[in-house]
Hints:
Layout: E1 15-19, H1 25-37, E2 53-57, H2 68-71, E3 73-77, E4 84-88, H3 89-95, H4 98-106, H5 113-119, E5 122-124, E6 138-140
Parallel strand pairs: 1-2, 1-6, 2-5
Antiparallel strand pairs: 3-4
Amino acid sequence: MKTYLPKVNLEQRRWHVINAEGAVLGRLAVQIADILRGRNKPVYTPHMDAGDFVVVINAEKVLLTGKKESDKEYMSYSGWKGGEKFTTVAQVRAKQPERLIAHAVAGMVPKNRLGRKLLTKLKVYRGSAHPHRAQSPAPLSPAN
């Protein structure tokens, strides 16, 4: 029996806008990753990009549960000896709150070429303004 491969029409990709205000970060990231991969569609195929575009607004108002705001740290490494840098969630939220959501979603997509392609369809902005009005994104409520 042959495997059914759906025809993915690139012109039929939809745009969704999600307001992150008051949403829990992990639950929001799961919802975004599912839309990016196309898991909410009947034509979902694991090795194909059948997902839609996602615009996230109010990234600085996302919530974290427990003591993650003060205890959770993000590590970056320069490649040099002693080149580790640790940044808390509060520091990331103050400087680049978009990275909180982008980092969480990046952990929930495949770690390969497909995953990198999916992440180009994620647009995260602080504040409620975004430059994608021409695409007329449909509002989506975050699942809590």
